[in-house]
Amino acid sequence: MQRTLSQGGxxxxxxxxxxxxxxxxxxHHVVLDLNAGSGLLTFEALRQVPEGGVYAxxxxxxxxxxxxxxxxxxxxxxxxxxxxxxxTQLPEVLATQIPDIRFDCMIGRNAFIHEPDKSAAAxxxxxxxxxxxxxxxxxxxxxxxxxxxxxxxxxxxxxNLYQRLVTAEEAIYRDTLDPMVNWDxxxxxxxxxxxxxxxxxxxxxxxxxMQITPALIDRWFRTTSATNRPSYAAHxxxxxxxxxxxxxxxxxxxxxxHQTVDWESVxxxxxxxxxxxx
Length: 278
Description:
The protein is α/β, with parallel strands linked by helices. The protein is 39% helix and 22% strand. The chain has helices spanning 2-23, 40-48, 61-71, 90-97, 118-125, 159-172, 185-193, 214-221, 232-236, 242-256; strands at 30-33, 53-58, 81-84, 103-109, 129-140, 198-211, 260-273. Strands 3-2-1-4-5-7-6 form a 7-stranded mixed sheet, sandwiched between helices. The mean pLDDT is 92.
């Protein structure tokens, strides 16, 4: 478990370092972290722009409060300004607090992943960018995430059932109406280019180690979800019977519980600006 956590941390550090390499911040820059999360990018931005300023956005009030508690130990003049907004809400929120502000750099890790209309989000964000500014993103593409059936030994299931499992799981990622999976790097490029930005895109396939815990298997196979999204089992139920899903769950438990597996994902790094050259 410690090794898995360590490798996950190393992966995040690599993503952070790549973002700041692309951003090329200067000490006086004003920076906006579009999805502050636990502060991975926010705190590095604070370090790199001591003469500028950092604004950190969270989607909900609870998330914003958690970040405010984190930065409370910093001297007041060194703290980021914490905002609560989705990307499309940001211009209005900023207009009420800091009218006419424009950013030298906007950075984000998985900032667009929750936006159902990425073109609309890009249209709102471009209003906040200085003419010489740059937008740098690292976005995980859910459409290309690790398939769970690939973690199983296909010979351990009836051939017909395994093929139906593959079909059922792949259907999750082919849902054109699901804003979580109905886009990829090309769509993100198009959204940004449509608002007048020049865009450079670099798609990277990443492998990290994942510990398969009882809680993780339970989350996959529970009938209800803590979020608004259906669970893995709920998706499978569209094509498989309850008994078949139980058989598959038991195979996951026998084969993978407490094992460490290679987990595949695709991360796209985006650098966009009014002055980028294609």
